[in-house]
C-alpha cells in the first residue's frame, strides 16, 4: 500500500534551498534549482508491507520519500539535484549529499540554514559534553518521530528534517514541460527485503 500525506509546510523566504544533513558541520549544500520565495507543503510517501531484516519478520510502515511540493503541475522530467559547488562531470553522483551515521536529511532556506540547524548542533555538543542523552533538540516532532521541524520566526523560515539512507542520499528535481520546478524529492529509508 502507498499513501501520500501532507506533513507540514515550510517557509522559504529567499527561494534558494539547501538539501543536506542537518548534522553536517559544513555550510550546507545549496542546490542549483531555484523556487519562488513562499510557503510550501512537505509531503511523505508512506509504504506499508511486511518485511524481513536479519531473519526477523516485521509489519512495516516506512517513509519511501519526502517531497517539497513547489507546484501542482505534473512533472515532465526528473533531474539530479545538483549543488552549486558540485563537480558536474557525473551529474547523478553529484546530485545528492552524504548522510552520516544519523542518517538524516533536511530542506531549508539557504539564508536561514545556520539558525535552523543550530538545535541539532547544540544537541550534539551537549551529548559530547555530558556523555549522556543531551538536552532536548528544541524542534517540533511530526508524524510520530519520522520528521522534525525547526523554526526561526526572526528569519521567517523553517527546516524539515527526515530519515534518509545512511551513506549517500540522492536529491531529485521534478520540472514541468516549461522547466519550472514543481517537486523536490529525497528518497527515504526503505525495508531491504520485502516479502512476497
Helix-strand blueprint:
Layout: E1 2-12, E2 16-20, E3 30-34, E4 38-53, E5 56-69, E6 77-80, H1 91-94, E7 96-99, E8 104-109, H2 113-130, E9 140-142, E10 147-152, E11 157-163, E12 167-170, E13 172-175, E14 181-187
Antiparallel strand pairs: 1-4, 2-3, 2-8, 4-5, 5-14, 6-13, 7-12, 8-11, 9-10, 10-11, 13-14
By oligomeric state, this entry counts as: single chain
Percent helix, as a range, is 10-25%
User: Would you tell me the overall average pLDDT?
Assistant: 87
Number of strands: 14
Percent of residues in β-strands: over 45%
Structural class: mainly beta
Q: How would you describe what is shown here?
A:
- By secondary structure, the protein is mainly β.
- Helices cover 11% and strands 49% of the residues.
- It has two helices and 14 strands, in the order ββββββαββαββββββ.
- The protein has helices at 91-94, 113-130; strands spanning 2-12, 16-20, 30-34, 38-53, 56-69, 77-80, 96-99, 104-109, 140-142, 147-152, 157-163, 167-170, 172-175, 181-187.
- The strands form three sheets. A six-stranded antiparallel beta sheet has the order 1-4-5-14-13-6.
- The chain is globular.
- The two termini are 13 Å apart.
- Residues 191-196 have low confidence and may be disordered.
